[in-house]
Amino acid sequence: MNEYPDSELVNLVCERSEEASDVLYEKYSFIIDIICNKYRKGAYYLSLDLNELRQEAMVGFSDALVCYNQDKDVTLQSFISLCVERRVRNYIRNSDTQKNKMLRSAYSLDATYGDLNDVPLGEKIGNTLYDPQVTLEQMENIKALKKQIDEMLSRNEKEVYRLMINDFSYEDIAAILNKDIKSIYNTAARIKNKIRSIL
Questions:
Q1: For 56-90, how does the pLDDT look when each residue is reduced to its tens digit (9 = 90+)?
Q2: pTM summary value
Q3: Of the CATH numbers 1.10.1740, 1.20.1440, 3.40.50, 1.10.10, which one belongs to the domain with range 6-96?
Q4: Of 13, 145, 146, 181, which is most buried, counting CB atoms within 10 Å of its CB?
Q5: Domain assignments of the chain as residue spans, ordered by start
Q6: Which of 135, 9, 128 is nearest to 64 (CA)?
């Protein structure tokens, strides 16, 4: 069946031929690998299981085989790429739920926060050297600052800001959000100016 052209294989897939589907998967599975690798950092940032990301890519691949219209002026490879990328991107966007946002905004015991003398929060808990009241006030100040930043940024700026503070490069941010790198630079500059205005 390997000798069949793509158009014939797609017709066989529509007739529920698993063998034709396997041949096309073997031929174009590299697309899944490339796209999953492209969105790997975004998935990591959202604490998503990479196996689930790959499953979504496979669903996109299957959808592409079923929905491909040979009359359109687009190759099967391009159509598969488009469907897989759209499915993976939607999965990542939909995974950015309120629950995930709450988990990411929670205070980590291993992290340091602003004015807390670069000592991890976990070391401060139960340590008599630190006044809990002072620590609480400092944390409330940080929380208030985060809220103020959140309120003054647009939706697009918030997406970029979240990735910036998690040490993603501008190139990675552009890839994750599927935007032009120049647009990311401009957005980052606006974010920095807005934050400077409240500090």
A1: 999 998 888 888 777 777 888 888 888 899 998 88
A2: 0.47
A3: 1.10.1740
A4: 13
A5: 6-96, 99-198
A6: 9
* Mean pLDDT value of segment 32-37: 89
Kindly state the tokens that stand for 156: 């697009």
Please state which architecture CATH assigns to domain 99-198: Orthogonal Bundle (1.10)
Q: Cα dist. 123→105, 116, 129, 182 in Å? A: 20, 11, 10, 41
Q: Enter the tokens of residue 91.
A: 């999965």
Rounded-to-integer distance, Cα 43 and Cα 37, Å: 10
CA proximity to 32, closest of 81, 79, 87: 81
Residue with the two structure tokens 């929060």? 121
What is the rounded CA–CA span in Å between residue 6 and residue 90?
Answer: 27
Tokens of 194: 């807005």
